[in-house]
């Protein structure tokens, strides 16, 4: 892991925290009980409950470690609080058009929140890096595996600012 902060929205952080709490507080203790019961049944070399349980426990512990590191590095950002709304920054919803005038709407979110099908791309993705700091009308070139592609920024939007 790098020392860079893990930018994330509050909703994304909540998802990570919920998964962590479910694994640590629910699934892991139940699995430990099953492993203890299976270990008490005698020969462990051919005991499927014991072998599978130990394997699954290692998977859960690895996932818990990963989630703990991501949450520790998390820097929760509220996109609605963005002051410079004329430029593309974290949390912006951007409408872009390619050379063939195909439009796409993308939202720049944390790397743990990505969902390409829903138009949510990670902050460190090549396209997101190219769009950072762009204003409406800017052209940005992105190096993609299929070759370079140029996009024009058509619109930039942020969530509404909460009332004070």
Describe this structure in words.
The protein is α/β, with parallel strands linked by helices. The chain folds into two domains: 6-76, Helix Hairpins (Orthogonal Bundle); 79-157, Chitinase A, domain 3 (Roll), CATH 3.10.50. 37% of the residues lie in helices and 23% in strands. It is built from three helices and seven strands, in the order βααββββαββ. The chain has helices at residues 10-39, 48-72, 126-131, and strands at 6-8, 74-76, 93-97, 103-109, 120-122, 139-144, 147-157. The strands form two sheets. A five-stranded mixed beta sheet has the order 5-4-3-7-6. The two termini are 38 Å apart.
What is the fourth-level CATH superfamily of the largest domain? Transcription elongation factor, GreA/GreB, C-terminal domain
CATH topology of the largest domain: Chitinase A, domain 3
Question: Strand order, biggest sheet?
Answer: 5-4-3-7-6
Low-confidence stretches: none
Largest sheet: 5 strands, mixed
Q: Helical proportion?
A: 25-40%
InterPro entries: GreA/GreB_C_sf (IPR036953), Tscrpt_elong_fac_GreA/B (IPR028624), Tscrpt_elong_fac_GreA/B_C (IPR001437), Tscrpt_elong_fac_GreA/B_fam (IPR023459), Tscrpt_elong_fac_GreA/B_N (IPR022691), Tscrpt_elong_fac_GreA/B_N_sf (IPR036805), Tscrpt_elong_fac_GreB (IPR006358)
GO molecular function, one term: translation elongation factor activity
Pfam families: GreA_GreB, GreA_GreB_N
Protein name: Transcription elongation factor GreB
Protein traits:
single chain; 164 residues; alpha/beta; Helix Hairpins; Chitinase A, domain 3; 2 domains; five-stranded mixed beta sheet; DNA-binding; transcription regulation; Transcription elongation factor GreB; Tscrpt_elong_fac_GreA/B
């Amino acid at each position: 892991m790098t020392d860079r902060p893990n930018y994330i929205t509050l909703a994304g952080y909540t998802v990570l925290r919920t998964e962590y709490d479910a694994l640590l507080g629910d699934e892991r203790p139940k699995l430990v009980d099953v492993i203890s019961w299976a270990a008490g049944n005698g020969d462990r070399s051919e005991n499927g409950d014991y072998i599978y349980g130990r394997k699954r426990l290692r998977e859960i512990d690895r996932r818990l470690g990963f989630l703990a590191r991501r949450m520790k590095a998390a820097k929760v950002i509220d996109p609605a609080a963005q002051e410079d709304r004329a430029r593309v920054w974290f949390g912006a919803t951007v409408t872009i058009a390619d050379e063939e005038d195909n439009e796409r709407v993308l939202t720049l979110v944390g790397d743990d929140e990505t969902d390409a099908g829903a138009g949510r791309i990670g902050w460190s993705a090549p396209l997101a890096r190219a769009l950072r700091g762009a204003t409406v009308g800017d052209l940005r070139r992105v190096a993609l595996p299929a070759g370079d592609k140029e996009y024009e920024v058509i619109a930039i939007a942020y969530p509404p600012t909460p009332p004070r």
